[in-house]
Design brief:
508 residues; alpha+beta; Uridine Diphospho-n-acetylenolpyruvylglucosamine Reductase, domain 2; Cytochrome p450; four-stranded mixed β-sheet; two-stranded antiparallel sheet; 51% helix; globular; Cyt_P450_sf; membrane; Cytochrome_P450_fam2; heme binding
């Protein structure tokens, strides 16, 4: 009996210790809501975020409630710090201590159960493969003329598709996503993904859109309570991600297999090995290094492709989509853009329809200012990250524990009322200086800062600019009479516009 009492006493003691430890706030931790036993702030966070329209808005409300630009939360068993305002956001992005990535169930599920790739890794693996990927993407034309040629080709394909609509109302987002992703895929795999008869790309993009809307930057419930996948696999999104992973993995492996066969054929014939895309370069690197010390392997290649695929599938096309929505709603802005494009489009002989090359971008001051204002105003990635503190450190006078997750509120910077004049007004002119030229602003950082800066920023900027110039050059974007798009975006991993339709009317 005494043994049973002892065990019961130990169990009760352990539960009391666990309870007290779960609600204990670390010493000098940033202010925030009180922790509930074992749950932290998870339920409160999700409930209030839904009520106000997104976690990005909730964080700003909590910053006012607790009078701090640095918030301290606990989501499940994970300590989470949210940085708001230009000073703290900049510090987090530029300090080495915050270059880590969390290692949790959701991020491993994102990368098919591994901790591979570039986006969700850190340390030596991240540094080595990020540098290799950027070096090879530059080699195959990323940021240079070859990328421009791919963009021109996809822009022409898009214009032909828009012409075939014969000014009927359409939702442009799916067409835009396919065009942008095909530019990226040509640099990765040396070819376009799909033709008009093939629905593979559309299917993958639809799954990506579902994933984006179902989760948030914190990973949703799966990140805090992975066991819920056994109870509610559909509601938590677990089945969706597994389905997406399976289809993407099969698609990537088929492409990698085709590249392997081409390399073997070249080797058999004694021909020079191709290196005109990222996959070829990676496969050759795999064969050139020692197997016992080599971090270049097939799984890492698949995850690297996945990182580029996810990065290129939504944010860029959604930015263009939002820009078109604004142009349909603001005829004055559209007219000014068209006037600038008409005045600057390059002319070759009697041909006045030549593509406006990126090399002449400095002549399109209002277009650049318009694009910047779209990115600032809509901030489709209002919360970026997540980062991980690599060692105990201080931020804003508070102690940040090792392995704490850091979230970065870009929205709080892009809508800072102390810096921007009437930040909730859409006004491209705020980026035009007294000389009439587009000017930079240190508070404008849609692609982030530092070594964790978005890998695809050069591609994104080039696609957004070139696609918009080409569309404005050839079409008037007109709202159907019954259409009134909403400026309130749908929350998720990224913010997306609610479905809307516009008419693309060919200019005479």
């Amino acid at each position: 009996m005494s043994v049973i009492m002892f065990l019961v006493t130990v169990l009760i003691g352990f539960m009391i210790y666990s309870l007290l430890n779960s609600i204990r706030r670390p010493r000098n931790f940033p202010p925030g809501p009180r922790f509930l036993p074992w749950l932290g702030n998870t339920l409160q966070f999700r409930r209030e975020a839904r009520a106000v329209g997104g976690q990005h808005i909730l964080f700003e409300q909590w910053a006012k409630r607790y009078q701090s630009q640095l918030l301290g939360l606990k989501l499940g068993q994970e300590y989470v710090v949210v940085a708001l305002g230009h000073e703290l956001v900049r510090e987090v992005q530029l300090q080495e201590v915050f270059e880590g990535r969390p290692d949790n169930f959701f991020l491993r599920l994102r990368t098919m159960g591994t901790r591979k790739g570039i986006t969700c890794t850190d340390g030596q693996l991240w540094y080595e493969h990020r540098n290799f990927a950027m070096k090879q993407m530059r080699h195959v034309g990323y940021g240079r003329s070859q990328m421009e040629q791919q963009i021109e080709h996809e822009a022409e394909e898009l214009l032909q598709q828009l012409s075939r609509t014969e000014a009927a109302p359409i939702e442009p987002v799916n067409w835009l996503a396919q065009s942008v992703l095909n530019v990226l895929w040509c640099l990765i795999a040396g070819e376009r993904i799909t033709s008009n008869e093939d629905g593979t790309l559309r299917r993958l993009l639809e799954l990506m859109n579902q994933r984006s809307k179902l989760f948030d930057i914190c990973g949703g419930l799966l990140a805090q309570f992975p066991w819920l996948r056994h109870v509610a696999p559909d509601r938590t999104g677990y089945n969706l991600i597994r389905q997406l992973n399976a289809e993407l993995h099969g698609f990537f492996m088929e492409t990698i297999g085709e590249h392997r066969r081409r390399l073997e054929e070249c080797q058999a014939r004694g021909e020079q090995l191709p290196d005109n895309d990222l996959i070829f370069a990676y496969l050759q690197e795999m064969h050139s290094q020692r197997q016992d010390t080599n971090s270049f392997n097939e799984t890492q290649l698949v995850m690297t492709i996945l990182d580029f695929f996810i990065a290129g599938s939504q944010t860029t096309s959604n930015t263009i989509n939002l820009a078109l929505m604004v142009l349909a709603m603001r005829k004055d802005v559209q007219a000014q853009l068209h006037a600038e494009v008409s005045a600057n489009v390059h002319t070759v002989g009697a041909e006045t329809d030549a593509f406006p090359h990126l090399s002449r971008r400095e002549s399109f001051h209002y277009m650049d200012a318009f694009i910047m204002e779209v990115q600032r105003f809509f901030h489709i990635t209002p919360i970026t990250g997540p980062r991980r503190a690599l060692w105990p450190t201080k931020l804003g006078g508070f102690d940040i524990p090792k392995n704490a997750t850091i979230l970065i509120s870009l929205r709080s910077v892009h809508l800072d009322e102390q810096h921007w004049n009437e930040p909730h007004e859409f006004r491209p002119e705020r980026f035009i200086d007294a000389a009439g030229k587009c000017c930079k602003d240190e508070y404008f950082m849609p692609f982030g800062l530092g070594r964790r800066r978005c890998l695809g920023d050069a591609l994104a900027r080039a696609c957004i600019f070139s696609f918009l110039v080409r569309i404005v050059q050839h079409f008037s974007i007109v709202l159907p009479e019954v259409e009134t798009p909403s400026l309130i975006l749908q929350p998720g991993i990224t913010l997306t516009p609610k479905p809307y339709k516009v008419r693309f009317v060919k200019r005479s």
